[in-house]
Here is the input.
Amino acid sequence: MSAGTLRVTSLFLSIDGEVNACGQGVPSFFIRLAGCNLRCWQAFGGCDTVYSFGPGTPMTVEELLARVEASGCPKVTLTGGEPLLQRGPALASLLRGLRERGVFVSMETNGSIAPEFDGRECVGSLVYDYKCPSTGCTEAMLPFASLFRALGPSDYIKFVLRDLADYAFARERVIEARGLRGDAPGPVPAFSPMLPVAGNGLAPAALVERVLADRLFEVRINVQLHKYIWPDADREV
Ligand code: SF4
Here is the structure.
């Protein structure tokens, strides 16, 4: 009997250009699930993965596990869209199947869905993309304090920064986290500069200078490697 189906936008072998507990640049097999509950950056033409908003292609858990096995890759990145929209028995079966095969899983999720879901223990690194003001989606985010307390030291809270208002928002969250951390290390905050395009975006050097000047020593800079390697499009093969 099938363990269920998931709706998939694309499967491809690439490198993980984002922060995760295996490190940036690690080869990874991507499972991009279909559908998203947010619409970020509507004021700026929308996000860079609008193609994930559609219904996708239904695939069984067995088919997905076979594709991962065929790739031979020991790491999977589960992303979207918003992968946790499909939380439930099929996603849990996929996560447990990957763990049984010794595959490390990182999951990219958008900050609006709580990290308590079936199969969560099989995710080695949860990467929460906590939406800053420029996205227009900040109000959909979980309360920062509850999210921070629910995550561990292998997890990340990532802030994609388009401008200095986004930086100020993220800096406030980092300072808030200092009061929440207590004796536990907590998740790692990561700042991701949007690459400057047509005068928009935040230059990585300018961001680093601000982080150092503000003594945000717990922050990791997440320059999205795949956007440097493939500036015209993510590698999806
Ligand atoms: S959560 Fe991600 S996929 Fe969804 S609209 Fe925002 S940037 Fe796009």
Notes: The chain has one domain: 5-229. The first helix runs from residue 61 to 71. Residues 36, 38-40, 47, 49, 52, 80-82, 110 surround iron/sulfur cluster (CB under 6 Å).
